[in-house]
Amino acid sequence: MRGILFGLGLSLSLGVFGLAQAQVMPHQSKHKSLGTVNCASSTCHGSIEERSGTPVLQNEYTTWLRQDPHTQAYRILLNEDSKRIAKNLGLKKPAHESKECLDCHSHNAPSTQRGDRFDLTDGVSCEGCHGPAGDWVKTHIEPKPSHAKNIQNGMYPTNEPYAVAKLCTSCHQGDATRPITHQIMGAGHPRLAIEVDTFLALEPPHYRIDQDWTERKGSFDSGKIWAMGQIAAASNLMNLIADPKRNRQGLMPEFMMFDCHSCHSPMSKKDWQPAMGASPGQARINDSSLAMVSALVKATQPQKSAQLKADIQALHVASTSPTANQDQLTKAANKINSTLTDVRNGLSAVKMDGPVLQKVLKEIVITASSGQYHDFAQAEQAFMSVSSVANSLGQRGDSVMVQNLNKRLNSLHKILANDEQYDRTAFQNGMAGLKQVLGE
Ligand code: HEC
Ligand code: HEC
Ligand code: HEC
Ligand code: HEC
Predict the structure, then answer these.
(1) What pLDDT does 11 receive?
(2) Tens digit of pLDDT for each residue in 343-400?
(3) Which contacts qualify for 111-118: CB closer than 8 Å, 24 or more apart?
(4) Position in ligand 4 atom list of the atom nearest CA 191
(5) Which atom of ligand 3 is nearest to the CA of 69?
(6) Mean pLDDT score of the chain
(7) Atom of ligand 1 at shortest distance to CA of 2?
(8) Among all ligands shown, which has an atom nearest to the Cα of 92?
(9) Cβ(300)–Cβ(350) under 8 Å?
(10) Does the CB atom of residue 60 touch ligand 2 within 6 A?
(11) Whose CA is nearest to atom 26 of ligand 4?
(12) How far is the CA of 404 from the centre of ligand 1 (A)?
């Protein structure tokens, strides 16, 4: 969790609830990518200052160029770390020419779909998130542009919570369109973790959700973005577990499906607890997002809670019991995926308003302070989720409680700053402090 700061007073996120079907990722789209230079003119998105009186800020390119880490995504592939990773993996080409790296460190559109001014070195470019502009570039500057028409022409629906969650997690966790393996980690790649709503605030935003945004794109709901981010991450993991092309490395299961620290922690620690799995000495599936979805379900669709709990239990049994086999594990992962779809559909009727967010917050904090988020990955998700949900509450006006929470979150952040020195008891105690702030 490098660089995660908070008191995210500016946490923005977006709105319309959309039951996005399997979205085509921008790098796999059939439309043509034109290149960032086409967006960058000062009369389009390259203004130095924010413009007023126009629907969009028009300085998006300037914000991206000066402040957005994604401009560096390609350049990183030229540094010493990347050279070492590529060498350790025995890649045939250097990192900045290898698909294994470019798929996430640039907008790696198919070579046939690149316009004259397309430039891979732009890194995660405008079109890397908004979709190839070949066909929507014209419609988006019509006198009365229609968002729906732009989407039809290949614009990616970044305004829809589930779609944006799928987009960000595809690179920040990896998915079938952007595979990442433990071999890449072993070669020296940093561990990946994301909470979508928090990361949207950190990017930093180059847009403003105001009245005209809502008129053009629908309502805006940061609570839903948090929820969809957790569902998308859980679902990506279930897809990995169930995908015969990706779920093994030779004799071993693909280690990306497990909690990293269930293998990577000092032997001297000796802190296994019965809550952590069926038996000691086994790698545990990384259920950090499932733990957050469980809290979401308890707060919003409690009638599905028992089912989800049973599904997660079955997944752990299928991965650790002495008679475990891949078929059972695949079945358990597919079962969870269908429950996740059910939960996602159910959410369309739920408004993530103040009372619902309060429930989510309490659920996470109470579970955490009872010591049930034992793994670092769970603690990290719980922490980012609490700060995201608290911020959403803050935007709705509960500022005193949020200020008090934020003070305590600061010290929790220190506990999580270094995963190798993570102290489970300190985290649990910190969460117990939050419980008091919530009056529980
Ligand atoms: C699934 C997508 C994905 C793939 C595949 C991938 N990366 Fe990354 N990489 C990321 C993301 C996301 C980050 C930023 C992580 C963060 O800061 O949270 C990152 C970070 C890095 C960093 C650290 C950057 C820094 O600022 O210190 C290096 C170095 C790196 N990647 C190199 C590579 C190389 C080399 C390859 C190919 C072998 C590769 N990556 C493949 C997604 C990916
Ligand atoms: C990492 C992903 C990402 C990248 C890269 C990115 N954007 Fe965005 N952009 C978003 C998200 C998320 C939103 C907010 C949701 C929305 O309005 O669709 C957004 C919103 C916008 C908006 C809409 C504001 C509104 O009021 O409707 C514009 C315009 C925009 N971006 C332009 C750009 C330009 C130009 C670039 C390149 C210089 C760029 N974006 C790069 C993710 C990205
Ligand atoms: C095409 C792949 C890709 C997509 C899509 C993508 N990212 Fe990234 N992102 C990266 C890479 C690679 C880095 C690392 C760049 C660096 O270290 O400078 C990164 C870095 C970041 C960082 C800085 C992380 C840190 O630890 O400092 C944030 C925040 C971030 N992305 C948010 C988002 C959000 C929010 C979305 C979705 C709207 C998104 N990203 C979509 C590839 C991607
Ligand atoms: C099932 C056990 C297991 C899990 C789970 C696991 N690893 Fe590993 N990891 C290993 C083994 C085995 C090695 C190889 C150690 C060696 O070469 O000495 C390794 C090596 C590494 C290395 C290289 C360390 C070095 O000494 O160079 C890194 C970095 C790494 N893993 C990161 C991760 C990350 C990130 C995750 C979670 C996504 C993870 N690992 C999950 C077993 C695991």
Answers:
(1) 33
(2) 999 999 999 999 999 999 999 999 999 999 989 999 999 999 999 999 999 988 877 8
(3) 113/29, 113/30, 113/31, 113/32, 113/33, 114/32, 114/33, 114/35, 115/32, 115/33, 115/34, 115/35, 115/38, 116/35, 117/34, 117/35, 117/37, 117/38, 118/33, 118/34, 118/35
(4) 35
(5) 18
(6) 92
(7) 17
(8) 1
(9) yes
(10) yes
(11) 186
(12) 35
Overall residue count recorded for the chain in this entry? 440
Amino acid type, 294: S
| pLDDT higher at 125 or 404 | 125
| pLDDT tens, residue by residue, 241-256 | 999 999 999 999 999 9
> Percent of the chain, pLDDT > 70?
94
- Ligand 1 neighbours, Cβ below 6 Å, are 2, 76-77, 81-82, 85-86, 89, 95, 100-101, 103-105, 171-172, 174, 178, 180, 184, 189-190, 192
Residue-wise pLDDT for 52-62, tens only, equals: 888 899 999 99
Which two three-digit tokens encode residue 324? 């475990």
User: Distance (Å, rounded) from C-alpha 355 to C-alpha 381?
Assistant: 21
Amino acid making up residue 187:
A
Atom 28 in ligand 4: residue holding the nearest Cα: 186
Which ligand 4 atom is nearest residue 190's CA? 35
Q: Given the structure tokens 């043509």, which residue do they identify?
A: 32
287-319 pLDDT, tens digit each: 999 999 999 999 999 999 999 999 999 999 999
CA-proximal residue: ligand 1, atom 34 (nearest): 101
